[in-house]
Amino acid sequence: MEKRYFGTDGIRGLVGTHPITPEFMLKLGWAAGTAFRNNGHCRVVIGKDTRISGYMFESALEAGLSAAGAQVQLLGPMPTPAIAYLTRTFQADAGIVISASHNPYYDNGIKFFSAEGTKLPDQLEFEIERLVDAPMQVVEASQLGKVARQEDASGRYIEFCKSSVPTSTSFKGLKIVLDCAHGATYKVAPAVFRELGASVSVIGATPDGLNINDGVGSTHLAALSRAVVEQGADLGIAFDGDGDRVMMVDAAGNEVDGDQLLYIMTLDLYERGVLEGGVAGTLMTNLGLELALRERDIPFVRAKVGDRYVMAELYKRGWYLGGESSGHLVCLKHTTTGDGIIAALQVLRALRMSGKSLAEACSGMNKCPQKLINVRYQSNGGSPLDAPELREAVAATEARLADTGRVLLRLSGTEPVIRVMVEGQNAAQVNQEAEALAAVVRKMFAAD
């Protein structure tokens, strides 16, 4: 069975276009409340990022949930991982986040968390989809759910983040710049780092409903790089709009991505003798991370792209650390989902423990050159990646790269695009092989 509405990270799309409409959100709230209430009493917490449409969808979800008899607690603008934590600490049956993550303001979406603060199981998502398409039946008036606003949500989450490092931890003397993407971390992130002693300046912390992720945040690091260099800061930390991703820049303004941050965290645990198991990355994780971990006999596994697949690998193997190049990093020793603030704290603690700068801590991992080419294709049914001629071309490329590189072809999940990626230790060869393979793909499948 294929899901009609849920993707790999909830339901997302253009505001005003089905299913991201007030009518659908009303029905979705009722369907979710009904699905959760099948197990008896139902309490749901709702948080959101700072985009303007969040107010509209919060009201629609609130009405639908109340119609299903669910009790609702409104948390206001809060990072996505904060909702996962608060769902657990308030002993709610589910958490809902209204956010489109790193997308522009004109997109929005819905993410759900279970009572354990994890993504919903497939069977529950299927049940919600079934109910969305069923007639809406309001519970008896005396059974309607009540709605209340939780006033101390931010304070609770700030203390939770601080608890992810030892109480003796102090970042006194560390000068950092935070970029909050005009998003959900704009209040809590500065408080966390200041309360741990760091000298903090902030950009991207004046949301107006329309500027979320606009030229700032983890997907637009230029502004943060400039600020770090101009202010003479030790490093910069950038979150995305909903706070589940983190990227950094060093004192010279150079980008430090999720693979490098994962390396720093892993090496810290390894050198302290407390690394349990291995590390999970994705198909897009830089080969340099895999090679650096291999030198120390640290197990590494690649999952499909998407945080839920990284989480699945970690749970399956009993490991605790994983992530994506985009900065979606998972520290299961501390929380149940990707959390930008908590991941950043682990990196800063590792720097304090080693006495190294961010640039020095990255130096043990040599990022391999990587070339990604997107080729639009015309679908004729079936997967173009199964074509024998293309398989032969990939095999020939892999043979030429031998043990010094790898090839990845994958279909985009949102558009008719084949992503051609070649990675290796020789930049010139990587570029040549990627262009040659992309040319084969264009010849076979390119759309007019």
TrEMBL record:
**E.C. number(s) listed in UniProt:** 5.4.2.10
Which GO molecular function annotations are given, in alphabetical order?
A: magnesium ion binding; phosphoglucomutase activity; phosphoglucosamine mutase activity; phosphomannomutase activity
Q: Which InterPro entries match?
A: A-D-PHexomutase_a/b/a-I, A-D-PHexomutase_a/b/a-I/II/III, A-D-PHexomutase_a/b/a-II, A-D-PHexomutase_a/b/a-III, A-D-PHexomutase_C, A-D-PHexomutase_C_sf, A-D-PHexomutase_CS, Alpha-D-phosphohexomutase_SF
**What does the UniProt record say this protein does?**
Catalyzes the conversion of glucosamine-6-phosphate to glucosamine-1-phosphate.
Could you tell me the superkingdom of the organism this chain comes from? Bacteria
Q: Which residues form the Alpha-D-phosphohexomutase alpha/beta/alpha domain?
A: 4-134, 156-253, 257-365
Protein name, as recorded: Phosphoglucosamine mutase
- What GO CC annotations are associated with the protein? cytosol
Assigned keywords, A-Z = Isomerase, Magnesium, Metal-binding, Phosphoprotein
Copy out the cofactor comment: Binds 1 Mg(2+) ion per subunit.
Chain sites annotated for binding Mg(2+): 101, 240, 242, 244
Cofactors required: Mg(2+)
Q: Which residues carry this modification: Phosphoserine?
A: 101
Please name the catalytic residues of this protein.
101
Family of this protein: Belongs to the phosphohexose mutase family.
* PTM info: Activated by phosphorylation.
Q: Tell me which Gene Ontology terms the entry assigns under biological process.
A: carbohydrate metabolic process; peptidoglycan biosynthetic process; UDP-N-acetylglucosamine biosynthetic process
Q: Which reaction does it catalyse?
A: alpha-D-glucosamine 1-phosphate = D-glucosamine 6-phosphate
